[in-house]
Write a structure and sequence with these properties.
The structure is a single chain. The protein is built from 3 helices and 2 strands, in the order ααβαβ. With 102 residues, the protein is mainly alpha-helical. A two-stranded parallel ribbon has the order 1-2. The termini are close together.
Amino acid sequence: MDVRKGIHFQRGVYAVLRFLFGGLFCLFTKHTAKKYKPKSETFLLLANHTCDFDPIYAVVDTKSHMKFVAAANLTRGFGGWFIKNLAGPIPREKGASADSVV
């Protein structure tokens, strides 16, 4: 699986959504975004999933493009088509080894 496939389109989707909804999201959740600039082009961001909005907070607070690891069942079906093409997550089967994800 090539994780770089469609990355330019996905960067555009993230930028548009961040511009249109990032400020509103922070306003409604009373989140004060501190922009984070990674020291390296490649980085690993680990979220502790304190709430369901952790991925959104990560996108709002970081201008760098990110790839998310998601359960493979989220990329199936009609709704999964949108998630797969707009966000481009790296699918991971539950109970399977995570070696291929790394």
